[in-house]
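Dear Dr. H.,

I hope your travels went smoothly. While you were away I took the liberty of generating a structure for the chain from your last submission, since the lab meeting agenda had it listed for discussion. I wanted you to have the full record in hand beforehand rather than looking at slides cold. The sequence, exactly as received, is reproduced here:
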Amino acid sequence: MTAHVHHTPAPAPGLLDRLNTSGHRLALGLFAFVVLAHWAEHIVQAIQIYVLDWPRPKAGGVLGLAWPWLVSSEWMHYGYAILMLIGFVMLRKGFVGRSRTWWNIAMWIQVWHHFEHLLLLVQALTKSNLLGMPVPTSIAQLVFPRVELHLFYNAIVFVPMVVAMVYHLRPTQSERTQMRCSCAMATA
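The corresponding predicted structure, in token form, is as follows:
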């Protein structure tokens, strides 16, 4: 008499596992697209101010031309900041070695950037601005104008993010053996 052995199949990987393994390349591509689109908005806004000499209230980037209320919406800015932070956290496990270090740097800078937007959102919702300022004001905005500050914040998050992605696509042999995704470029 042979015993009947019942094998339970392994559970399907969860969303986070898929995002950091088989879906990592696609998820990073989508994340990069969103980041680049956001960057483009800030660059267009800077061109409108510094090249086209538009008054700051009229310089709203591309989306701000169609929907001017978006530029002044703290909800929209906060939404983007939290989306970025969630993206950094969710895609973090797919990075190893040098790329993880640079991804972490970008993520921690985004934590601060998110905090600044949370502070702005709370002020807008409570109608109680920092230090009695006439408009919601972030901590760094006490020293730097908002347009320039956001260009700076986006740059200091973007640069280490790009470094992380380059290292992720071009890992050392040791890093390649630790990777669980197929993002690494083929070696020659």
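Two observations you may find useful: The helical segments are 15-19, 24-50, 61-66, 68-71, 74-91, 97-126, 146-169, 173-178. The chain has a mean pLDDT of 91.

With kind regards,
E. W.
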